[in-house]
Amino acid sequence: MMIKKYVDDLFHGYESTAELEDFKEEIIINLKDRMQDLEKTGKSSDEAFAEAVSELGDITAIADDLSREKRKEIIGKMYVDTKPKLSAGYAIGYTLAAGVLLFGIITSLITYFSAGNNLFIAISSFLPFVVPAGAALTYLGLTTETTAKYPMDWKRALIYALAVGAILFGISISSSHFFMENSDPAAILGVLVPFVLPGVLVIAFLMLTEKKRFKPWLMQEHERYHEAYAGYYKDTEEVTKRGMLSGALWIGAIGVFLLIWILTNILYALPVFLFAIVGELLIEYRMISKHKRNSATK
Amino acid sequence: MEGRISADLLRGHTDTIVLGILLKNDAYGYQIYKSIMDRTDGLYQLKEATLYSSYKRLEKEACIVAYWGDESQGGRRKYYRITDKGRIQYKQNIADWEFTQRILNQLLKEEDD
Predict the structure, then answer these.
(1) Nearest to A25 by CA among B15, B84, B13, B68
(2) The complex's ipTM?
(3) Which residues cross the membrane (chain B) (predicted)?
(4) How close B13 gets to chain A, by Cα (Å)?
(5) Which of A213, A168, A214 is nearest to A195 (CA)?
């Protein structure tokens, strides 16, 4: 029952007292009656629920009086000691990686202009910088503990970093080939595919098998959010499925885009994104109609 | 010129409004809420939370007593009954309000004449 769950969540963190339970029961039955009346006027159960809940207003002041213990410092838990400090090693690592990246950009700009606006040489000279910097930033980013997430296991992060490195390597090599005089499209794809494809596959595999690294308080927040607003997407699983679907769609679209661009012309490649947008809309539509069906059978 | 309601002013009289509704017969939360909405044609929407704190306050002052009904269908409801003290309080509040209203009218409309 939506209402019972909602009210339970509202008082989540209050110490249970006889009076509070009494009060909860009263609120629940009143909300139920209200919802029923609203449904009689032709509103859907979701609409009726939303309206009834909005009419309830803020009951925390009353609950504070009723419950001896106030909300068990959920807010405290959220802000105290959750801001992890960056270790010196990581700070140096980030700075170095950013420095290398910056240096690479400057170097390639210098070569670009001194070599008579030759993009081939410019990108080639960018390559030795962007690959290690990109990989290093990926590794550091994934293994850094943040307010919301625990660090990733270093081995896993290393695989990510290597895959990102491979992708960057493939992209920069093949794009420098692209600007080389008398470049052969087959050769460009020939360098792109063996690096980018395995890299993308590895990352896709890692992402799909990813374990959640959210901190407990965030998980609690998510849970409460999902339970209280169970209206739109039915559950986390559906949201994940939807995310994967559109992720696959966009990765595919970018792949096709690159392929058409290299083989023919960017003008022919651009419409791919139009199709991707249409696909995205279709996914959204499917999710909504599925959700409607679900709530109709409820 | 159409008037707008002063939410603060009305909130200050929630207790009296609740007592007034309970004068005729006992009622449970949603009945009280609905009868306020019906009377104002939905022009003013009181939050239910305001009513809940009013019940708690009135209960503490022994102006009303709460009891659970014995509905067999859909769950029991908590009813409120006005006490003798509540009736006296209600009359006092109304008298106070009428006095206040008279004074306010005299003060606010002074400019007119």
Answers:
(1) B68
(2) 0.85
(3) none
(4) 18
(5) A168
Residue A53 has pLDDT above 60, yes or no: yes
Please tell me which of the candidates B30, B45, B56 has its beta carbon nearest to residue A30: B30
Place of tokens 């009954």: B81
pLDDT grade for A226, boundaries at 50, 70 and 90:
low
Q: What is the pLDDT of residue A231?
A: 56
Q: How many angstroms separate the CA of residue B112 from the nearest CA in chain A?
A: 39
The full set of domains in chain B, from first to last, is 7-108 (1.10.10.10)
Count of the separate structural domains present in chain A: 3
- Examine the pLDDT at B93 and tell me if it is beyond 90: yes
Structural domain harbouring A68: 2-72
Is A26 in contact with B75 (Cβ distance < 8 A)? Answer: no
Going by pLDDT thresholds of 50, 70 and 90, the confidence category of residue B22 is very high
The predicted pLDDT at position A16 comes to 74
Q: What's the CA gap between B64 and B54, in Å, rounded?
A: 10
Q: Which residues of A touch B74 (CB under 8 A)?
A: 29, 32
Residues sharing a CB contact under 8 Å with residue B74, sequence separation 6 or more, in sequence order: A29, A32
At residue A95's C-alpha, the angle toward residues A93 and A100, to 5°, is 95
Confidence of residue A71 (pLDDT cuts 50, 70, 90): very low
- What tokens does A250 get? 């966009």
